[in-house]
Structures are given as C-alpha cells and as structure tokens.
Design goal:
Elements lengths: L15 H22 L5 E7 L1 E2 L3 E3 L5 E2 L1 H13 L2 E7 L1 H9 L5 E6 L8 E3 L4 E10 L16 E4 L4 H7 L5 E4 L2 H9 L5 E5 H11 L5 E3 L4 E10 L3 H12 L3 H12 L11 H59 L6 H14 L7 E7 L2 E6 L6 E9 L2 E10 L8 H74 L6 H28 L7 E3 L1 H18 L2 E6 L7 E3 L1 H17 L5 E10 L2 E8 L6 H4 L17 H11 L3 E7 L3 E9 L13
Parallel strand pairs: 1-5, 1-6, 9-10, 9-11, 19-21
Antiparallel strand pairs: 2-3, 3-4, 6-13, 7-13, 8-11, 8-12, 8-13, 14-15, 14-17, 16-17, 18-20, 21-22, 22-24, 23-24
Length: 676
C-alpha cells in the first residue's frame, strides 16, 4: 500500500524566516494597540470540526488530536490566554460563530460560500479539492464527468457547490469526512469528493488507498481561521498571538503531522526588516499620544454629560409641573381621570421614568401607574386639605446602578414629589369648595321645585276635589238602590274606595311640598294589594303582564295609613307594568323581618341604567314621555313618613327590584275588621 505524500504548508525558500520575524513584529505592535484599548482576555473559545484529519480528529479514546490542536496549544502558551476548543460539525461551528457564541472557528476554506460573513486570516495550509472513484471506474476527470453517478459529499462543505456549478446534482450528503469515507469503503457510493489531505489520511488508515483513484484537482484550497465579520479586535488578537509563536515550534508541529521538508528558509532582506522596526516604533509613539488624548477627551465628555443631565432634569421637572397643572386645572374633570393624568405626568418627570411607579391615594380612592421592577426606593408625601391628611402621594423607583448620581436622582425625586403634593392639596381644597357650592345649588333648586309643586297641588286639589266629591255622592246613592245586583254593589263600593284614595292622594300630593302627617292604623296588606291588582288588571292584560304574589297570607298587618299604602303599591305596580312593554312577569313578595315587613316588587323588564339610578327619586325626573316624575318621590316620602325605607336595585337586561321595609302593627290589629 502506497501512502500519499501530503503537501507541506511551510514556505520553501530560506528568505521566509526573516519574513516571519518581521510579520511577527508588526502583529506584536498591533497587539499592543489592542491591549491599550481593551481589557485583557482570560480565555477564548474556538469551534473546530472533529472530523478533519489530520487537522482535528479524535483518537481511539475519543480525545481531540491533530495539527490544529497542537497549533492552538502553541498560541495559548505564547499569549497566556486559555483556548477552549469546542468540537462540533463544521456547519455547527459556523452557526455558533455567527451567533456570537464562540470567538473564532478554525480550518475554514477559501472556497466557503459563506465567507462573506467571516473575516478570514492569512492562509496557513494549502490543499486540493479532488474527486475519488473506485478503481473499477474510469473517465472521472471533472465535475461534469460525474453526471449520472451518485457522488458522496460532506454536508456543509465546499464540494456540493463546486459540483453543482459543474452540472452534477446527484449528491449524497454525509455529516463528516469519516462518515463519507466509510460509505465509500462500504460500497454505498463509488464516487466521492474530498480535500486530498483528509482523503489520503482516511484511506491509508483503512488500508484501502489502492482501491480508489483520483481525478485532477477541481480547485486549489487554502485553510484559514476566521472570526465574525467586523470583529477586528479579535482578529488582531489572534493574529498577534500566532505571530508570537516560536517559528521552530510551529514548524515542529507541521513536521509532526505532515512530514518534514528538505527546504530551508532563506534570510530576508535586512532593509525591509529595519523599515518594519521603525514603523513599529512610530506606531507605538502614536498609540501613546492617542491614549493621552483619549483620557483628556474622556474627562471633558464626563463634564459635558453631567451638565446635560442637570439640564435634562430641569426640563423634565418643568414639563412634569406643566403636565400636573394642565391635568388639574379643570375642576370638572372626573377625579379618577385627574389622578391618572397627574400620576402619569409625575412619573415622566422622574429621571428613571421607565423603572418608576406612582400611587395616589385620596379618601379611599387609589390610582397607580407604571411598574418598578425591584422597588428599591420608595418616597411618600402627605396630601392635605384644610389641615387634615386625606391621603398620600407615593413614588417607587428602581435606583440607577451605583454611581455618584444616585443621591442626585433621590433629591430630584423628593423635590418634585413635594411640589406635586402641594399642588394636589390645593386642587383638592378647590374641588371640595366646588362640590359644596354645587350641593347648595342643588338644594336651592330642590326647594324651588317643592315650592312650585306646592302651588300646583293646591290648584289641583281645588279643581279635582269638587268633582271627586260629586262622584262619591253618586256612588253612595247608587249603593242604596236595592234593585242592583250584588256584584254591582261591590263594584260601587270599590269605586267609592278609589274616590277616597284619590282624595287622599291629592292630600298627600299637596303634603309632599307641605308636610302632612299620615294617620297610621293596622292594615291587612293582602286586602290592599287585592284592590291594587283589581284596578291595574286591565293594563296588565293589555300588556300581557302576569302577577306572581307570595307571602302575603302569613304576613301580620302593617302599621300604615291605608290610603297612602295603597298609593305606594299602586305606583310601584304601575311602574313595573310600564317597564314591560313586550309583556313579562311582576313578582310581589312579602316576608316578616323582625318588627318590620320586607316587601318586594320586581319586574323582568329591561332594567335601569346605572347612571339613572342615582336620580330615580328626584322630583320631576322621569324616563317616560307621559310620566310626571313624582311617583317614586311620593313613594319615598310616604315610606319615610311611616318610619320605613325604600331602595331600588336594577341590572340592565335583568329587570328592576324595589324593596320596602315597613313597620308592623301587631298590637293594633283588629281581627274583626277584614278591611284592615
């Protein structure tokens, strides 16, 4: 078996020895420039392919070995910087470098299709890209001649692109050189493409070199190490380190893995070496001057930055105060909206606005804006109104990284917080005065309405009272007619009772403006409600409304003015019927609650909007075109005059529920009088 002689990477003529020395001197000077501007590294990480013999591969025990391993060991010894070799596939090595997870990769070909993303070093080892084919085949001379053959290639290498350019597309990719040669030895592929050094090593190691032939070189290759595009500092550092490696030691590594050469390097031109030494000294002087200039610029820049920070703080403070005054100048703005805008303005005025939060608490209302991740510093200021504390203004911020400006940031935040707190205290006092004035205006308006209603009721009582008296007299006269049927007598009795109720209603209507005490007595709620349902049944039937009554038969009698109680129930039932234009259910339920009765009138209508519930008991306020706006105010007045209470709950789409709490009159109950 004949071993293939690998080309020697070192120069042949003797003059290259001096060249190495001068190049080393230049790179050493560049390394000094790099060291003057960057902190020294303790280690670097270099990604290498562990399937590239004799460059880097694994021995029988799985340890990395090869020319590349020894070469980086020399670099480590020359620089004192530890080299961490990370063995991966070639594709993974490039991905790691482009992702910034390694500092460099080694054994990159000058024909790499992605070399525009890399900064390559000078070439340090030549080789050739060759087609290998089984000895039973002939006629393989270039890429075109492989058409029709299945050609094995290493995935991510140079061969695939080279073969495709020649029109050969029937390719079988393998993950590594070893896997590719093993496939050829097993007969899976008869033709494969490899650099000649790797192919010669692997075929001879397997003892199968005589089984294959080789084509003329498809192209010449050179090996490089590379860094990511634009990382000039790392490239300079690595190049300077290799320049410091002893040439004899480097040559011994190449001789160990590639064989020794009989050529001896010549002496280089002395004048060129002297020129390079002078250039290096000049460069050192220039670097020293630049270092001094850089320190002076750095000091001046620090002064300018401090002045800029002070100016920015003043601008932020003025902008913050302007935002706070603008947000709080309109006293009609809702309090929550005003607090939100003030908190936002204060947060933007802080030096660390992105890492700050502001909380405003005022009489139970809380508003917060922003988020402080670490909650490192918390400042608070009380919010005063009329000399009393009504809340507090709190700022929480993450302090900047420890520096001389930390105290300044704290002082600026404290001063701004106090100014905003004073402004809010003034605004709250003004809003309180405005609220008091509005309440007085509302009370005055209410008194005017009550006065107007009193005058109106007096006129109504006069105009309607006389006809009602005549109607009552006719009804009473007809009741004495013996020829009338009993049901007619009963209806006339109901009519007389309704006339009495209307008369009492007029009196209570007048009494809404002029206080009039009720005449309470023990009343049976079931009987009074029966009259109410009798007079409302026509409206209920026409509106397809049905009644559900529960709990009245076991309820003790109420202490009430029967006419006013009937008026209350009639108003509530009619309101419930009007709330069901499409039909529905009105539920009337009663239950005893200690010394009181709990009455509920609920409908299944559309409900009342939340903003209207607060005004539902105001006189003359109504949502119906034909409404007077006095029904519910009269209801509340009658209930409160009897020592009870009334409340309304409603949910849009779910209906409305009116709840009465009415006192019982168990001691005054006369079981003989069923009308009560």
């Amino acid at each position: 078996m004949k071993l293939t002689r690998l080309p020697h990477p070192s120069p042949g003529p003797r003059w290259r020895w001096a060249g190495h020395g001068l190049v080393a001197l230049a790179l050493w000077a560049a390394a000094i420039a790099y060291a003057a501007t960057a902190a020294p590294l303790k280690s670097i990480t270099v990604a290498v392919s562990d399937n590239s013999p004799p460059w880097v591969f694994r021995d029988a025990d799985g340890h990395l070995q090869g020319l590349g391993v020894d070469r980086w060991s020399l670099w480590e010894a020359a620089t004192g910087i530890k080299v961490n070799l990370r063995a991966v596939t070639y594709r993974q090595a490039k991905d790691l470098l482009l992702a910034g997870k390694v500092d460099a990769i080694d054994f990159v070909s000058n024909a790499d299709v992605e070399k525009d993303q890399l900064d390559l070093s000078d070439a340090y080892m030549p080789s050739n890209l060759v087609l290998y084919f089984h000895k039973s085949i002939s006629g393989i001379v270039d890429a075109k001649s492989t058409r029709g053959f299945l050609v094995g290639v290493r995935r991510g290498g140079v061969c695939p692109s080279e073969l495709r350019e020649g029109g050969s597309y029937n390719l079988a990719p393998y993950p590594s050189f070893v896997a590719l040669v093993d496939a050829a030895l097993d007969g899976d592929v008869k033709v494969f493409c490899l650099p000649d050094q790797q192919a010669a090593y692997l075929l001879n190691r397997a003892g199968k070199a005589a089984e294959f032939r080789r084509s003329p070189p498809l192209r010449s290759l050179t090996a490089h190490w590379a860094v990511r595009k634009g990382n000039a500092a790392m490239k300079t550092l690595i190049a300077a380190g290799f320049a410091r490696v002893d040439p004899a030691a480097r040559q011994a590594v190449f001789d160990r893995w590639l064989g020794s050469s009989v050529d001896q390097p010549p002496v280089y031109l002395r004048h060129l070496a002297e020129a390079l030494v002078v250039a290096a000294i000049t460069l050192l002087v220039l670097l020293a001057w630049l270092w001094t200039l850089r320190r002076a610029v750095k000091r001046r820049t620090a002064d300018l930055l401090a002045a800029k920070r002070d100016l920015a703080a003043r601008v932020r403070e003025q902008a913050c105060l302007h935002g706070v005054f603008k947000a709080s100048e309109d006293l009609n703005t809702p309090l929550r909206v005003m607090l939100h805008d003030v908190a936002d303005a204060l947060r933007t005025g802080l030096a660390c606005a992105d890492a700050a939060s502001v909380e405003v608490d005022w009489d139970g209302q809380h508003h917060a804006t922003g988020t402080a991740q670490n909650a490192g510093t918390r400042l608070s200021a009380p919010l005063l109104a009329e000399g009393q504390t009504h809340g507090q203004l709190t700022v929480t911020y993450d302090p900047p990284r420890a520096s001389a400006d930390d105290r300044t940031v704290h002082d600026q935040a404290r001063g701004l917080l106090d100014l905003v707190a004073q402004r809010l205290a003034t605004v709250f006092e003004r809003r309180a005065l405005q609220d008091e004035r509005r309440e007085l205006d509302r009370q005055m308006f209410q008194m005017e309405k009550l006065t107007t209603m009193g005058e109106l009721t007096m006129g109504l009582a006069h105009e309607i009272g006389n006809p009602l008296g005549g109607m009552k007299a006719v009804a009473q006269s007809l009741q004495h007619e013996a020829a009338l049927p009993d049901d007619v007598h009963e209806d006339l009795a109901r009519l007389e009772a309704e006339i009495d109720r209307l008369s009492a209603f007029l009196r209570s209507f007048h009494g809404y403006a002029a206080q009039q005490a009720p005449a309470p007595e023990a009343c049976a709620l079931e009987r009074i409600l029966d009259d109410v349902l009798f007079w409302t049944r026509r409206d209920a039937r026409s509106g397809k409304v049905r009644f559900e009554v529960a709990g009245l038969d076991t309820l003790p009698p109420l202490r009430a003015d029967r006419h006013q109680l009937k008026q209350v129930l009639l108003n509530l039932v009619m309101n419930a019927i009007h709330a069901l234009p499409e039909g529905g259910t009105v539920a009337i339920r009663a239950a005893r609650a200690g010394a009181t009765a709990r009455l509920e009138v609920a409908d299944s209508g559309a409900g009342i909007a939340p903003e209207l519930l607060t005004r539902i008991f105001e006189p003359f306020f109504t949502t119906r075109r034909d409404g007077s706006g006095l029904g519910l105010p009269i209801v509340r007045k009658i209930v409160e005059d009897h020592g009870g209470s009334v409340s309304i709950t409603s949910e849009p789409g779910r209906g409305t529920r009116v709840t009465l709490i009415w006192p019982l009159a168990i001691e005054d109950h006369d079981p003989i009088d069923p009308a009560r």
